[in-house]
Amino acid sequence: MSEPVLTISGLNVDYGTGDAAVHALRDIDLTLHRGEVLGLAGESGSGKSTLAYAVTRLLSPPGVITGGEVHYHQRDGEALDLLTLTAPELRAFRWQELSIVFQGAMNSLNPVHTVHSQLTDVLKAHRPEMKRAERTARAVELLSLVGISADRLSAYPHQLSGGMRQRVMIAMALALEPEIVIMDEPTTALDVVMQRQILRQLVKLREELGFSVVFITHDISLLIEFSDRIAIMYGGRIVEEAGASDIYRDPCHPYSDGLLHSFPALHGPRRELTGIPGSPPHLSAMPDGCAFHPRCGKALDPCATQVPVLARPDGDGSRTVACWLHQPTPATAAPRS
Amino acid sequence: MTTTTDQTDDIVLEARGVTKHFPVRRTGRDLVARHRRTVHAVDDVSLQLRRSTVTALVGESGSGKSTVARLLSQLYPLTDGEIQLEGKAVKAGRGRSFRSYVRQVQLIFQDPFASLNPVHTVRYHLTRSLRIHGREATGAELAALLERVQLTPAAQYLDKFPHELSGGQRQRVAIARALGADPKVLLADEPVSMLDVSIRLGVLNLLRDLKERLHLAILYITHDIASARYFADTTLVMYAGRIVEGGDSETVTQRPAHPYTQLLIASAPDPDRVVAEEEQEETGSGEPPSLIAPPAGCRFHPRCPKAMERCRTELPPRFDLADGQWAACWLYADGADTTDTVGDHEKEAAK
Questions:
Q1: What is the pLDDT of residues B230-262, one digit of tens each?
Q2: What are the backbone dihedrals phi and psi of residue B43, each rounded to the nearest 5 degrees, phi first?
Q3: How many C-beta neighbours within 10 Å does residue A27 have?
Q4: Which among A146, A315, B77, B90 is most buried, taking Cβ atoms within 10 Å?
Q5: Average per-residue pLDDT for chain A
């Protein structure tokens, strides 16, 4: 596997402080490798968007990062600690190295500015040496990259369809050729046909430009098709992380298994599906032990009291899972690198 | 399957050539134009809801599927066409005739966070539903309603406010409220798309169970064709205000006839496709048309890979195919014979 480009270790995020604090993320360990698509799956409230905002330092109060480290690895091998960057450093870092496509393109574009001015804004701020004509040329280039004709430059967001707006957002994210693009539910508001077009384009662009993608969605069947590795979140923790096909063929965590069986299949035999009984826990009333144990059909004794750690199951080095069913025997337990 | 359900007395609610055009607000030049422009939201939609049957209406957003639900529930007046409840044409106005209509045809909304009043308890919602529709609202009745939607023990939920319930529980309360009228038809407008993925199937299974026990006719409106295959007996596919294909759910999803249905199925996420991805490049492009000036002929022709000259000018009628399946597409104009063999051939191949 290629070198890491983003490493997150022991990240904790709370909403609020003191006794009233709600733990939104707990001990998140995650590595993004150069050029890969990492899928982040989970239900609403599992903390997947919070993770994206924490990593980009966009978390607004009452969200507080209470612990952990986030390192960005530059091409020359130097590591940048994102959580200690000063405001000017952060400004230079964002969008240049890491950009984000927000959930709901409808609301993320400024309705009173044209596509042209929104696209060139980024260039104006980060590349002050560029001339006006160069910026326009770059904006045209970016639009053609995502399959929009140049005459749309002077359009306002309301004149574009939902799919085109989402493409503009992607073009904007790629404006400075960042190393990492975080996509927070980029296609949830779109129809399946448009969703497939945009994702196919994204896959193509990634091959051409070589950036890494963190793809956040609740639709795990989409992730299996489009991502290399998948991390599944539940109740603010990562419960399983493995290659996309491993998750699909052989999910270790009962929650991953339940999630996979929550999507009816289009092909193959019609099976009776049950979903997962119960409902996701509220962050302010998280169960003791494994957060999933009240809904889990395979719960054991320790599940109710002890939190399972993310570890490699026996005999498999390429994946990690946080479940008492798959805890390694002490002899083979190795600390995660 | 078609032979057994073709009996007309099974049909509870039927739409015949239902059309709805919304006027467009006139600005600038329109004010002096002779014709008012309209949005052709729904055009010539005919469908039948049968007792103990789930009918799915699948389409992209903006295809008019929610408008169909609102027309069927008489929330909008029709521009043209007719709605028949148990064989009798109905035109509910407001007041008493509307109330007696909604007693039999109930609507479930997409968003259980918005469709329950946040300042009232579950008990209030259910009591109101029962009283309005002329039934006793005793404790036993309320408990029975909650039990039907699998919220047990009832006492635990009756005095809760909506914010104390999870999304799935809220949607169950909304379903219980609809059942309070003891309806014959449930119109479910995207009932699970706002819910967490892990609890969607629970709600769908509940609706299916209700269909069987109470002999309800259910219209399931969705954008997710895979869930239609799972949950519905028959599936109708809607594109730009028109129904383009219909038939048994399994047939429609496994052997889609209309090019739009084929595009829809090719676009749905499918983990099994990982390998085959490279082979089927460019399944489709373009976007649904504007409904203010819909394309002449077949509305799908600007995006259709198989479009012929005829598609641009003439509107395709329904062509019946094998197994009760039909499609509004000129590809099938040569008669059902050829399509029959194609269908059988594909069926063999699928096996």
A1: 999 999 999 999 999 999 999 999 999 999 999
A2: -130, 120
A3: 18
A4: A146
A5: 85
* A vs B: CB pairs below 8 A: 107
Of A192, A220, A273, the CB nearest to B268: A192
- Backbone dihedral angles phi then psi of residue B8, each to the nearest 5 degrees: -65, -25
Residues B61, B310: Cα–Cα separation, whole Å: 27
3-state SS assignment for residue B269: coil
Q: List A residues 246-275 in contact with B (Cβ-Cβ < 8 A).
A: 248, 258-259, 262-268, 270, 273-275
In this complex, is the C-beta atom of A131 within 8 Å of any C-beta atom belonging to chain B? no
Residues of A in contact with B276 (CB under 8 A): none
Q: Do the chains contact at B196 and A225, CB–CB below 8 Å? A: no
Containing B63, the helix (H) or strand (E) segment is none
**CA–CA min distance A260, chain B (Å):** 9
- Domains of chain B, each with CATH number or no CATH: 10-23+37-121+177-269+288-350 (3.40.50.300)
Q: Residue A82: left if φ>0, alpha if ψ -120 to 50, beta else—which one?
A: alpha
Tell how far CA B318 is from the center of its chain. Answer: 19
CB contact under 8 A, A264 and B201: yes
The domain defined by A1-97+178-273 carries CATH number 3.40.50.300: yes
**Is residue B275 over pLDDT 70?**
no
Q: Which of B83, B55, B62, B56 is nearest to B71 (CA)?
A: B83
Tokens of A112: 């009173």
Are the beta carbons of B198 and A258 separated by less than 8 Å?
A: yes
Residue spans per domain, chain A: 1-97+178-273, 110-177
Cβ contacts (< 8 Å) between A276 and chain B: which residues? 198-199
Q: What ipTM describes this predicted complex?
A: 0.77
User: To the nearest 10°, the Cα dihedral for A200, A205, A207, A208?
Assistant: 150
Q: Where would I find the beta strands (DSSP E) of chain A?
A: 4-15, 22-33, 37-41, 63-73, 79-81, 98-101, 180-184, 212-217, 229-234, 237-243, 320-321
Q: Strands B242-248 and B234-239, how do they pair?
A: antiparallel
State whether B231 and A224 contact (CB < 8 Å). no
Contacts of B198 in chain A (CB under 8 A): 43, 258-259, 262, 275-276, 279-280
Please report the pLDDT score of residue B29 as a whole number.
66
